[in-house]
Amino acid sequence: MAQYFHIHQQNPQLRLIRQAAAILNEGGLVAYPTDSSYALGCHLDDKRAVERIRRIRRLDRHHNFTLVAADLKQVAQFAKIDNQQYRLIKGLTPGPYTFILEAKRLVPNRLVHPRRRTIGIRIPDHPIVQALLQELGEPIMSSSLILPGAEFAMGDPDEIRDRLEHDIDLVIDGGLVSNQPSTVLDWHLNELTVVREGAGPVEFLVQ
């Protein structure tokens, strides 16, 4: 049965953040709030936890998982970013956007799309996940919490506990959030395209 931490949205309790980080480091699967919806996250080196996310969401092998990072410095360890991409990402983050970028050669195969060698990158604007990332010192392997057959992501921690308490190890209650997933922008080729419209506006892309 999942543990349930109520963490203050603006001033996260360090004691609980450290406990949540320990659960991730020990192979746990965590539901946590972002600036769009809730997400499922695990340690980026944990293959079993990633497979648990696949089972919960019924994802195929071609699903692009996302690395949720604290800042662009962490992103640059995993993704190739040119000057134009850097300027746009810096201007939109932290925020409700996921960027699909070309992965660096040293990134393990399990973290990238098997055919395109791309990786999803996200820098959310939420104090809880930012505190958790600072405590971990590395990104979280993540996926929006959209259950099979659902049109929207989950935004209610009580509902998440009711639905998934036997499938995950921790629910971080950061209050109600939007049920919209992040906006996904694909920029692994020369052209920037909108893959999914979500919480982040895209009007600025229309010339």
Q: What can you tell me about this protein's structure?
A:
A ten-stranded mixed beta sheet has the order 1-8-2-3-7-4-6-5-9-10, with helices on both faces. With 207 residues, the protein is an alpha/beta fold. The longest helix has 12 residues, at 14-25. It has a single domain (3-197), classed as DHBP synthase (Alpha-Beta Complex), CATH 3.90.870.10. The model has no long low-confidence stretch (mean pLDDT 92). The chain contains six helices and ten strands. Helices cover 27% and strands 22% of the residues.
Quick rundown:
This protein is of the alpha/beta class and 207 residues long.
Helix proportion range:
25-40%
Number of domain modules: 1
Order of helices and strands: EHEEHEHHEEHEHEEE
Alpha-carbon Rg, integer:
16 Å
Mean pLDDT comes to 92
Regions with little confidence, pLDDT below 50 for 5+ residues: none
Strand order of the largest sheet: 1-8-2-3-7-4-6-5-9-10
Layout of secondary structure:
Elements: E1 3-6, H1 14-25, E2 30-33, E3 38-43, H2 47-57, E4 66-68, H3 72-75, H4 83-92, E5 97-102, E6 118-122, H5 127-136, E7 140-144, H6 157-164, E8 170-173, E9 183-186, E10 193-196
Parallel strand pairs: 1-8, 2-8, 4-6, 5-9
Antiparallel strand pairs: 2-3, 3-7, 4-7, 5-6, 9-10
Helix pairs in contact: 1-5
Features of the shown structure:
alpha/beta, DHBP synthase, 10 strands, 10-stranded mixed beta sheet, 6 helices, 207 residues
